[in-house]
Amino acid sequence: MQLPEDFVRLMQEQYGADTAHALCQALTETEPEVSIRLNPRKGKPLIIDNVRAEAVPWCPDAYYLSERPAFTFDPLLHAGAYYVQEASSMYIAELLRKYMVQDSSFMIHDSNSQQATVNCQCSMLNAPLVALDLCAAPGGKSTLLAGLLPEGSVLISNEPMPKRAQVLSENMQKWTRMAEGDYPVRCIVTQNYPADFAAFTDTFDLLVTDVPCSGEGMFRKDEVAVKDWSLQNVDLCWHRQREILQDIWHALKPGGLLIYSTCTFNHFEDEDNARWICDTLGAELLEERHFLPGRDRGEGFYCAAIRKKSLPQPLPRRGDEVERLEKLLPSLGGAGGGCLSPAFVLSPDTPRVELNYNEALQYLRREAVRVPAPRGMVLLCYKGYILGPGKCVGNRINNLYPEQWRIRTTYTTPFTLGD
Fold first, then answer.
1. Contact, 167 vs 134, CB < 8 A?
2. Which fold has domain 352-405?
3. What is the pTM of this model?
4. Residue 200, helix vs strand vs coil
5. Which residues, including other chains, have CB under 8 Å from residue 253's CB and lie 6 or more apart?
6. What is the pLDDT of residues 259-286, one digit of tens each?
7. In this structure, what are the phi and psi dihedrals at residue 222, rounded to the nearest 5 degrees?
8. Which residues pair with 305 in a beta bridge?
């Protein structure tokens, strides 16, 4: 693979000859890392014992794998037991741990309470939050947030493109299905453009914007990204990124946290935009980090934690905030008409039917499944994890797995993670 000359020159100017050489060599001569993140909120912990794994240092429950197995044929992936995600982008977990603190935006509303003072210094993990993942498809960052946000939080995962929004909805539904009870974070998928959030002024404690970019961090995975790259496209991207941020900035509360990220290396889309946010929109840059192949273990990624400047004002109670959000959701007309409906609803009383590996693949291909089961609606499971619904009519189970989710390939490379 030949990298564009303008890209090589830009990297040399930005990082120096040695780092740029290591980066370009890694992009053209090495394979991408493989990494996964386990679902911490499924009823049963997944134990990895058939693939060599090494912990990702900045994200809990995340691992580098020694090889890329045939994930498509693992029922545990379809059950939402884990998510295949690039390790660099998981650094958002570290930024949240460090900077999503309970400052004045998140204090308990009793100015005379000693507890309020204590809570100012606590992490995000002890009080509900309202969060928006603005450019969320296919769902890596939203599933990460769903696993990290405290119980009672609300997460809106948004994607304006219809096909990508459907993939996002599928991944979020698989991730948040629970064996027992309700998921502790309310997750809502929407299909809207940033300007459609006009009514959401001062609504979100956390705003994640993994904005569309020139895709330099995808060079090692996608030759089309290399072919399409140009300085003109970089210029187009950093202007569009600023437009997106201007459209959505009002929705972040004063004192709220913005996570700004791209999968690029160039400073126009990364550091320059982070400083523009601070200088033009009114914020403080807390931390920024570049991940570079050849230097870091992962793909190309840039992320910045940015705190919106606070204004002295009365703070609403947490229950009032959720009620206000409920009232605002119908205003999301936009490209897709608001929230996407779930593919199916689970009842905690529905009988569970355990499938073996081959039976699970039959179900995921939407083929007929013939196993002993009580008549009526059942939930088909693999190793205790829910795959989806079926209806037993006697000698067979009618397959009710969503058509758009089914495994379409007819061959199989057997694989399942863990025992």
1. no
2. 2.30.130
3. 0.91
4. coil
5. 105, 202, 203, 204, 205, 308
6. 999 999 999 999 999 999 999 999 999 9
7. -140, 110
8. 259, 287
